[in-house]
Every structure is written in C-alpha cells, then in structure tokens.
Amino acid sequence: MNRVVISCGGTGGHLSPGIALAEGLAARGDRAVLLISRRRVDAELSGRYPGLEFVAMPGDGFSWRPGALARFLLSQAGAIRVCWRVLRRERPIAVVGFGGFTSFPLVVAAVLRGLPVALHESNRVPGRAVRVLGRLARRVYLPPGVTWPGLRKEVVRPLPLPVRREIRRGSPAVARTALGLDPARPVLAVLGGSQGAGALNAWARAAVAPFAAAGVQLHVVTGTGKDRAGTITTETPVGPVRAIFEPFCGRMADLLTAADLVVSRAGAGTIAELIRCGTPAILVPYPEAADNHQEANARWFAAEGAGAVVTQDRIATLDEVVRATLADAARLAAWREALRRLDRADPMSAMLADLDELGRAGAGRAGLAPA
C-alpha cells in the first residue's frame, strides 16, 4: 500500500481536487492524508467525507502588511511542525500540494525529509505558491496549454483538474425534486464560489421577481455568512415559483444537473465541475482575484465554446444576457456539446500513474526498494 500526503485547504477550489485525489488513491487500496486549514469551509466540506483522514493545521494567507505578514510566518512555523509529524508517521512515497498557503509548510517539510514533491495548479495563471515552490518540485501539473517560464520543462506535465467521484450528471427531474424545485420548470443556479460573492448575491436577490414572472426558478449558493438563507416563493399566473438561497450546497452534482444555466464566479474548481456535469455557464470573474486568474479562466472557458463571460463592471447587463441565453436552445446545445468535448480527458488515471513513477524514482534516489 502506497501512502501520499496532500495539502489542499483554504478554499473549496483547493480542497475539492485534493479530496478527488484521495478518493482515487483509496479506490485502488492506497492511503492518503489530507492537510487542510482551520477555515469553516474546510470543516464543512471535509465533514462530508468520513472515510478520508483530514488533519487541520494552523495557517493564514500571505500578505505584505506587517501584522498579517507576522501572523502568516508564525502560523507557517506551526504548520511545518504539523507536517513534519505527519510525514514521519506516514512515510509517504510523495507529497502533493494543490496551491494556497497550506502548500508551503508541506513542501518545506517534504524537502527537508528528501521526499518527492508534486504540485498541481488548476488556474490558467499559476498562483504564487506554485511559482515559488515549483523550483523545489519534481513534478508540476499545469492545465493543458499553460506554461510558466520559471518552471523547468522537465518537471511540467499537462493535466486537467481531478474532480470528486460524486460529481456526475444525473437526471435533471430527479435532481430538481431532490433540491425542492419543480421538475417541470427551468432552473438558474447562481454560485459565488466557496467564499461567496456579494455582487452575485445582490444581483440574484434583485432578479427573483423578474425571473419568477418568466417561470424560472433560482437556486443561489451565497457563501457562509454572505447572505441570509431561505426560500422565496412567488405566486404567478402559472403557479408558484421558488428561489432558494443557501450558504453551502452539499449536493453540487444535483445542483449542476438540475440547472439549465449557471451564473458563477470563475474558479478553476467550479469550471472543472461544470465541465464534468455538462452545464453551460455565464461566468462573472472575481475582479480582485490574485493575478486576475479568474478572468483568464473565464476567457479560456468562453473561447472553448462552453459559455460566456460578463465582467463585474457590466453586471447590470447580466439579466439581459441570462434571459437571451435561456431562450436560445441552439446556443445552449452548442455549449453542452463543447462541454462534452472538454470532458474527454481522464486526469485521475494520469495523475495516479505519474505519482507511482515519481514515488519509484524517489525510492531509487533514497536507495530503497521501489513500492
């Protein structure tokens, strides 16, 4: 049995692919330990996977502000100690970091112990963690078509983001019923990412009445603490139409299956799940994202023919774009066909095979028998 230690906390976009990799390892009899942050989103999502082992470690995001920088450095020192103990106990064949502030302490501890390091970057613009730590890695997985001049060519492998096993398209009618929606009415889902999006929440609140008048149901994932939860039922001449607001969705596959169209931020994890479920989307990139990576993600998605982009400074036009799209069956069909094309890759099998190779190479360097 091989062991792999994975760092993947801080946001749903980091944690979800880490869980996916752990599921892939467990399915073939291997063991994974997932190092996550102490943020609420990590606790909520990890709590849904009792069969996996999670270790919460201290950590704060990086900032140049003196107070925040001091907290970051102090928390990273504590996190390195946690990682060191986990690595000493597990003796993994390799470690994998999915970016963010939880990757740094694991990579440092792994390098000190002489373990192979792999990093996965899911965004179209590599983040700070991958750009800095990539020089220490023996493997860096980047989205197909993405390169970065600071990374050695021999360590880079093109690889889409692995997706959790449960994220699969099912029956739209069954999914709508499970979510408390009318299976006969169209559904618009609004997703602000794991952290929520105030601008999208406000837009969705204002859109409840006009979309209800058109017979369109809403299901809005607001983000924890970003908006009030509840259901708004609007009586219309054709009957009641519901708009559901909830802070966290534990049935994302059902929601993406139920939706005729999604309005969403442009995180790489969300895009990967849209592709897997074949759900067309209009993406509204978060304008403050590091290195404007959400804009790059969204533009790639649209260029592949899978959806459209509305920048936040043009959010006033979103109603019109959504209405026109929902009324255009040919456009939606073309987007779904593009999504099917994008879903032909099998990143999980490729990543597992490559980690095996990395582990054997690492064992050889250490003078150990290959696993």
Give structural notes:
- The chain has 371 residues and is α/β, with parallel strands linked by helices.
- It folds into two domains: 3-160 and 346-365, Glycogen Phosphorylase B (Rossmann fold, 3-Layer(aba) Sandwich), CATH 3.40.50; 172-342, Rossmann fold, CATH 3.40.50.
- Helix content is 42%, strand content 18%.
- The chain contains 13 helices and 14 strands.
- It has helices at 12-27, 40-46, 66-90, 103-112, 128-133, 172-178, 198-213, 252-258, 268-277, 293-303, 318-326, 329-342, 347-365; strands spanning 3-7, 31-36, 53-56, 94-97, 117-120, 139-142, 156-158, 187-191, 217-221, 230-236, 239-246, 261-264, 281-283, 307-309.
- It has a seven-stranded parallel β-sheet with strand order 3-2-1-4-5-6-7, sandwiched between helices. The protein has a seven-stranded mixed β-sheet with strand order 10-11-9-8-12-13-14, with helices on both faces.
- α1 packs parallel to α2 and α1 crosses α13.
- The termini are close together.
